[in-house]
Each structure stands twice: as C-alpha cells, then as structure tokens.
Amino acid sequence: MNDRLADNLQRVRSEIGAACARAGRLPSEVTLVAVTKYAELAWVRRLIELGIRDLAESRPQQFVERADELSARGARFQRALDGHVENVPHVRWHFIGHLQRNKVKPVVPRTVLIHSVDSLRLLERISEVSAEQSLRPRVLLEVNVSGEASKDGLTIADLTSQWDVLQAVANVDIVGLMTMAPLTDDPAAARPVFRALRLLQDQLAARAAPHIKLTELSMGMSGDFVVAIEEGATLIRIGSRLFDGL
Questions:
Q1: pLDDT tens readout for residues 29-77
Q2: Which residue segments constitute the domains of the chain, with CATH numbers given?
Q3: Alpha carbon distance 7, 244 (integer Å)
C-alpha cells in the first residue's frame, strides 16, 4: 500500500510540475488538496507521512470525525510506531461538499477553507455561526459555470448581480471561487469552464471592496486538474488518482 500510494502521489506531483511549466507558473502556486471521501484512514495517515498537508471531505459528519481524528486544529493524533507515540504534523482541512445550513456549526471551527458556498443564505448562516464562535472563516463561492441542473452553485448571472450583497456579509473572508467541470473522458472539454471561472474572478475583483482579495481558484479534479492548472487553478482537488490501485 505504502509504495503504491507514494508512487501515485509522485506521479500527480510530476504532472502538476509539468502543467505549471507549460503555463509559466511555479508549482508552489498550486495547492494539492487530497480528497479523502472514499479513502481508508490508514491511507490518509500515510499521505500525511508523505508530506500532504491539505485534506478535504465533502460530507459533514465524516469531515468532523476525520478532522478531529487527524489533527485538523493542531491537536495531536497518536499512532504507535516502534513502540512509541509520535506526533503527526499539522494538517489543514478543507470542506468541499454541499453544506446545509443546519450543518454549518461543527464545520466552521475545523476548516481552513470552505470551497462550496453556493448561496447567499448559506453565506449568511456561516456569518452567524462565525460571530457566535468569534471566528472569521475563509470561503469560496461555488459557481455552476456549466449550467448543469445536477450541479450546485450560483449561476454566473446570479453571482454577478448579487456580488455587492455577498461581499458585504460580515464575519467571513471571501477569497475566491470554485467550480466543477462536466464529467467527461476528454479533459480538454473542461477548459472553457475553467477559463470562464478565471475571467469571472477578474470581473468580480474589479468590483470588489478593498477588504476582498480574490486570490484562490478551486478547480480541477483527478481527471482534469492538468487543464485546470493551465487555466489558473490555485487549488486542485485530487482523490481517485491518489488512491488508484489500493
């Protein structure tokens, strides 16, 4: 298991480096977020040993359980190694799935970034919880660029029209945008979606209040992250490519 996981991670990192080179970017500009939704706990621990520091879950209950188990907030998780207890390095947990308003409270204090804010009502609920907990979470606005009925997210038109209201919501920092491209066997088909998100980011940044800095683009998954990097992704969400063959 360990060698296969290490090999998978190395291949992904190599592809990230190659994509950055083609786009004239530095690999340090792209954060690999490992999606652990279907991964066994031992695999996740091994990823941490291999240097992964950004992990993601899409289901609130599993997010909370794994964040607490695997030291999301700097607390220790302990594992036996040659008869002694070893600290695991600090990791950062991202929430990337659909978030219902009644599930916000346990997520906010455990996450470094919520990728999937798909409505003004959800953003306002996050603001309420953040005020109660004296926190100021970083969030991304999820955009349904492709217009697919099966996908969550604000439409480009809704986001553009609501932008002034969204950026005025207190107790949160909107730091960028997120999208999911249509599932396809051809990664190049995702390029127009990723490019549209980057252009939307530029448009919103031009209208942003001084405290809003749109620096992050979360786009690209196991099948299309190379294209996403070429189009400006700063966060790529990789799951199946890391755990292939395990």
A1: 999 999 999 899 999 999 999 999 999 999 999 999 999 888 644 344 3
A2: 2-243 (3.20.20.10)
A3: 10
